[in-house]
Structure formats: C-alpha cells, structure tokens
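Marked as duplicate of an earlier ticket. Keeping the data here for the record.
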Amino acid sequence: MIESEHAKTVQEQKAKIRERYKGIDTSELECVPAKEAEDVFKSKRELHVAVYARVSTDDPRQTSSYELQKNHYLDVISRNPNWKLVEIYADEGISGTSLMHRDAFKRMIEDCEKGKIDLIITKSVSRFARNIIDCIGYARELQAMTPPVGIFFEAENIHTFNPNSEMTLSFMAAMAQEESHNKSEIMNASIEMRFRRGIFLTPPLLGYDLNEKGELVINADEAKTVRLIFYMYLSGSTCQDIADTLTELKRPTKKGNITWSAGSILRILQNERHCGDVLSRKTWTPNYLNHKSKKNKQNRNQYRKYGHHEAIISKDDFIAVQRLIRNARYGGKGILPELKVITDGALRGYTSINTRWAGFKAYDYISACQSLQPPALQNDSSEVNAQAGEFDLRGFEVTRSQFMNPKEKPYILITPKMLKFNMNSLSRIPNTQYVELLINTVSQTLAVRSRPADSANSVPWAQMKNGRLVPREIASAAFIPTFYELCGWNLHYKYRCIGVSRHKDNENVLLFNLSETEIFIPKSDSGQDIDTPGNSPAPYFGATKSDIMGYPAPWCHTFGNGYYYQAQAEELAAFTRTGEWIIQSEGITFHTEHLNATPPDEALQHSAELINSMRVEDKNELTI
C-alpha cells in the first residue's frame, strides 16, 4: 500500500514538471537584445593600443629583427585612425619560456591593470610567451579585467576577444613551448658532444686572455691579482680582507670594476682553471622553462682535463685553499691541520679528531688507523678452557648495559649537529674541562682523554655552572658527516653509545664501542622503512617517547655478548694489560696527501711583495 502511494506521488511530480516546461505564449515576452561583440578593427571608439616585441638574444644581429617589428607596428597603428599608441614594450635578449627578467612585459601587464591599455598587439604566440601556462594564464587574466584587455596575435590571426579563440591559442602555445624544449635538447646534446671531445667553453677569466685559437693564455698583470688572492688566503686572510685590500689598491676585476666583494674573491679561489685544469658542467638546468641552474651533483656527465693550459697557481696551493674554504664553512680558521695517529701505548692506532675540520674524509681516518693496526687479539670463547676450581662460563652472556638504565652509565649522545657527554662521563675524568676525542676505525672505538685547552684538537666538553662543571654541547658540524660515514649511520637519526672508563695511576680514559649503539629515530620517520647501512637488519624498537628508540635487530635474540668475548674485548684489552699506558702520547703526522703547499709565513711574504709592487706601479702611473 505504501509503495503504491509513493509511485502515485512521483507520477504527479513529473506531470507538474512537464506542464511547467511547456512555457508560455512568446507574444507575451519582450526580448532585450545583447550588445554585439566589438570588433576592435572596426570600432569607432578610441582604443589605447600597446605593442609587445621580444628578441631572444642581445646579439647585434637581432637588432634588425626588433627594428622591423617596431616599424611594422607603427605602420599598423597609423592605418587605424581610432587607435592611439600607448608604448612599444620590448624585451631584448630575454627567453620567452619564463617571465624572469622580462621587465617590459611585467610593466605592460601593470599598465593594463591601471586601465591604460585596451588592446595588445604582438607578432606571434611565441613572441608573447613560450610557456603555455603563462600564455593562457595572462590571456585569461587580461580578459577578466574591467574593461577587458584583448591580445591580437598577428601571425596566427588569433584575437582573444573571440570566445572561440582559446582552444586555438592553447594549441599554438603548446607548439611554441615544445619548440623551446626541442631547442634546449639540441643545445644540451651539442654541449655534450663538445665536452666529450675536450672542447671546453672559455668564458672570460681573471688572469687569462684568449688568443686567436680561443686558448687561455696568461695575462701577466691580471695574474698578479690572482696570485695575491691565493697567497693572502693561504696566509690566513678572509675573503672580505682580500676584497678590501684589492679595492684599496684599485686593482680591476675582469670587467674593469675596482670595487671587490667577498663573493667575487671566493669564486676566484674555487675556480680550478687558475691551476691549469678545466672541469666542465659544474651546474646544470633541470627545467628549460625557468632556466634555474643547480649544482651538478652527478646529475649530468662532467669532464675534467688536467693541464689544459698554463697554471697561475700550483696544484698543491689550489688543493690547500679548497680545504681551507671547506673548513671555513664550519667556522674553522687558520692553517691546515694535520692528521695525528698514536704510535705507542694503550691508544696505539687511534687517530685524533679535529671536530672543527672538514678537510679529512672517512678514508683518511681509516688509512691512518690501519697504518698502525695492533695484532689481532684472541676473543673466541670456543677455545677457552675452564681451569680447575673455576666456573665454566661458556654459553653465559653479560647483559648489555643499554638494558640496565643506561642513564646511570657514562654515555655520549651523537646527533647530526653536535656531540654531548652526560654527567657520569665527566665524573670519570674529574676536574677536566677540555678533552680530546680519538677514533679507532679498526675496533670501532671512540676514546676520550683529558688535554690542555691550548692543545691542537682539544674541545670543551664541560662548562662551569653554579660552581661545578656540567656537560656542554660540542659543536661538530664539520666532522659529523665523516663520523656518521665511518660508523655507517643514518644522518637523520641520533645515536647513544654507552662507555666504560679505565684508570691507572693518574691517567683516565673513556672508551665507547661505536658498533653497539641505541638509535633514536624521529617520529616523522616512524612510518617509513628504516634505512640501515649495507645489509644490516632493521633496528628493534623499544619504548616510544619523543623519538622512537631502537636497538640493532640481533639484540632481540640475546641479552648481551658471551662472557669470554666480553672479558677479552679487543677495544679494552690494551687498557687491562700490565705496562705503561702512555695515554698522553702526541702521535705522529699521517700524510693523507703529500701536498707541497706554500707555508703560511711564506705566503704572507709573497703577499707583502705583491702589494708593494702594485703600489709602486700605481704611483708610477700617476706620475706619468
């Protein structure tokens, strides 16, 4: 019964709709006709017309193209008595794929917004824009203005006042964009072929001129400026110091300016061409539409030619300067530090860490430690035999201290930006504000010993507060990436290492096993796959707090290491033997590269000689 009533209601509603849509007698209606779309070429009212012209390069030969466009449109406007020229907006030497640097175009759009322009005339879609988004976007924006502004593309005979023009305009804009894309690909292929054959681009470079063959030849006067820049930097001057000196000496840049900046000095110091080499494609352009270049991090092939031309600066001086620049990014100053490796005592094979130096790489520390690798220690518990009256502890494990409230143990927290020890660590080397960190890449151990404040690699691990020493963060941004690489860690995570202390007579040392760490993973990464080095298993997660704390996966199957393995641990064995520890040994220099760089004092002398000679030359020129 209910369904029948519902069907009847639906039928009644449909009948009413049909009746309503029969309409009424048209004789009862009055139609008010719409205004016809204005044909701007036949309009009797005065129209303010703008012309937009663009040439893609500033080559003098393109001047003719610009002049032809300008004169042509002056004639077109003069033939329409109701048209009044506002301005010819022209961009020269600018690409059409982006609005970057198209100042005339932007100014024209601003004038449209101010109501100064009714119509824009341009040669073609590609002259207006080679980016489909810009082309259609601005056409719509201009059409939506009050009053609307139209665009007439002469070559394609497209007028945006025509409501049917957008599809054609979209197609032509897409064609113009693809043409730019093809040109970009052809240009990149041409450059690649040149580089493969050792044909390098030779832009103007301070210190060099180009001969008739297009080869770099030394410009003697400019070369003095280049040498002064390198010698001053090797002697400890900053880029700003060098810029101020050159400005005071009125030494010209390659473009003839006599005002220098720190940025221009840095670019000269980093240019390998000054030591005779050439490295191609240092930057690349990912997007042909915006032309923004990025540093080439193996995104495209690079080609290097050693000894491409005569050098102004020695190769060793250039390498030394690059190391100093890299270190300066982390606030480091002064001359090149040395990599020291301990040759005797309990710390034999450990390499001193300079936390403020980024010049040494992971392989440098590995090579230094391996150069003094101690004999392998026996720690295979399977060959241990229990003596009479002793317990046989094979098969027993020593519980990891990480499972037994690690906060009560000495530990170091290592983050992507800094290192920090806890109070317990400070108590193991009492009354000590400065320490030195040493690493053994063979045993994967970090050692900490006290050092005087003026020691080369000493760092403040504590600060005085309310009359007592408390831990302080050790800024280590320069060394941290290398530290993480040595340990095979993920730079997004934090790590905590539990330590043990050893004491003999008046000598104290802290040791941290870097192969057994707790891992703190940010919550933002908790839903992602955990990145572990090599084929290492993913961490086993413990309690969750602000970060997710994890342990190496094998730990979930054991409480710790075997008793005899732990008792004979290689990283601790040297500190339990009888004999002299020699904990404060200075170590010897490990040469990562045999650089014959100019010493700082000699570089300072060369700088002074060059400055004096430049001042004498300047006086002679004034006298003449």
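See parent ticket for discussion. The chain has a mean pLDDT of 80.
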